[in-house]
Design goal:
Layout lengths: L7 E6 L7 H11 L3 E6 L9 H8 L3 E2 L5 H6 L2 H7 L2 E7 L1 H9 L5 H8 L3 E6 L3 H5 L1 H13 L2 E2 L3 E4 L5 E5 L3 H18 L3 E6 L4 E2 L5 E2 L6 H12 L3 E6 L11 E4 L3 H10 L5 E4 L6 E3 L17 E3 L3 H6 L8 E8 L3 H11 L4 E6 L11 E8 L4 E8 H16 L1
Parallel strand pairs: 1-2, 1-4, 2-3, 4-5, 5-6, 9-12, 9-14, 12-13, 14-17, 17-18
Antiparallel strand pairs: 7-8, 10-11, 15-16, 18-19, 19-20
Helix pairs in contact: 1-2, 1-9, 4-6, 5-8, 10-14
Length: 399
């Protein structure tokens, strides 16, 4: 089956000696029945011509940001929306720097920054440029933003040097794109449920018990499921985060509400319980605000453990049930105990006593404990990359 048939791909060609290889990629895409539009930067025209691109792609080549002809036919926003995905080939150090820092001074960078589609970056540059610390930081930022990086490879370069920085061959780029689209198609049969954020347990109309969870990690996991083709539901406590597009979003406050909405949205193929659910609730809820001089009763009772309830419920249990464990000490011991006692398949544990990772941080470091007694560490990285790594492992498990 041809996963590329009738797809729309926007090819962005930047200035570099490898630009001529983009023509081979376009030829390969056309053989796969892809509809192609192309953006060529000013410097790229030093290496390939719009005429040669048009003859191969049989599609429009866009050059200038403020061209009256281009804008009347398709503006930079609709051009980014037209495509199913975008490939930047070759991606120069200059282009990578602009994208990582949000700079838009030409049509290519403007379209890329305005896009809501999957973007593949194919770097090509001198080995010293590739290895430069600033470029390395820019690549990390692009990965955190959700760009996929293809290559570069190690080999001989046009400048006469040898090392990493050589552009990936067009046939391999084509294979990357095919595999991505094929995976998306396969994953459409899967349903994912993610819980995220803190819950609140009210003592009276103005006072409640909660925790420091920001919900960021759960939101990133839900986003990664969506981006990989899953039909995704996100059940979230109150956070400062915006609902995600193309995801069924349900906002709750209390643990009881989260349990109810979770049950209502089962069965699914995979459930990731990343929410920081309050273990206890107040035994008595006061309908009116408690006054300072009133006698205070803060007796508490346990909430239902949502992860344990779902994991041990045969008719509700997903094929893959994943729990989170936020720990401040004895991480391995506590995580293994939860893995067993809650009857889940994986426990993902993190140390929230470290202010640089975990609660309300952009970064996380987690250890995944599997039911087969194996475990692995995902070292400190942006929560979006943690999410990608988790979802990648979920996909391998389901397939």
């Amino acid at each position: 089956m041809n996963s590329l048939s009738n797809k729309k791909i926007l090819v962005v060609i930047c200035g570099g000696i490898s630009a001529y290889k983009s023509l081979e990629l376009i030829r390969g895409l056309k053989k796969k029945q892809v509809e192609i539009k192309t953006i060529i930067t000013k410097s790229a025209k030093e290496f390939v011509t719009p005429l040669s691109i048009t003859s191969l792609s049989q599609g429009k080549v866009y050059e200038d940001l403020f061209s009256s002809e281009s804008e009347s036919e398709m503006d930079h926003i609709s051009l980014s929306r037209w495509a199913d995905l975008i490939v930047v080939v070759p991606a120069t150090a200059n282009t990578i720097s602009k994208l990582s820092n949000g700079l838009t001074d030409d049509l290519a960078s403007t379209v890329l920054l305005a896009s809501n589609k999957k973007i593949f970056i194919v770097p090509a540059m001198n080995v010293r440029m590739w290895d430069h610390p600033s470029n390395k930081k820019n690549i990390i930022k692009l990965r955190e933003y959700g760009y996929s990086i293809i290559g570069p490879e190690i080999g001989d370069m046009a400048c006469g040097e040898y090392g990493e920085g050589k552009m990936t061959e067009p046939s391999d780029i084509l294979l990357h794109i095919e595999n991505y689209l094929s995976s998306l198609q396969k994953n459409k049969k899967y349903k994912a449920l993610v819980t995220a954020g803190p819950t609140r347990e009210y003592l009276d109309p103005v006072r409640y018990l909660t925790n420091k969870s920001s919900g960021k990690q759960g939101y990133e996991i839900a986003k990664s499921f969506r981006d990989n083709g899953f039909e995704t539901t996100l059940i979230s406590g109150i956070t400062n985060l915006k609902p995600l597009e193309d995801i069924k979003f349900i906002e709750v406050e209390t643990a009881d509400e989260m349990l109810k909405k979770t049950i209502e949205n089962l069965p699914v193929d995979v459930a990731v319980f990343s929410a920081a659910v309050c273990d206890y609730k107040f035994k008595k809820y006061n309908k009116e605000k408690i006054k300072k001089n009133a006698e205070l009763d803060i007796s508490m009772i346990k909430n239902t453990d949502i992860l344990s309830y779902v994991s041990k419920h045969n008719s509700l249990r997903p094929k893959l049930t994943v729990g989170f464990a936020a720990e401040t000490e004895n991480l391995d011991l506590n995580a293994k105990d939860k893995l067993s006692s809650k009857n889940c398949d994986w426990i993902i544990a993190n140390n929230v006593s470290d202010n640089e990772i975990g609660f309300d941080s952009e970064y996380n470091e987690v250890k995944i404990f599997y039911k087969n007694n194996k475990n692995e560490i995902l070292h400190k990285m942006n929560k979006s990359l943690i999410a990608e790594n988790i979802v990648e492992r979920v996909i391998k498990n389901l397939n």
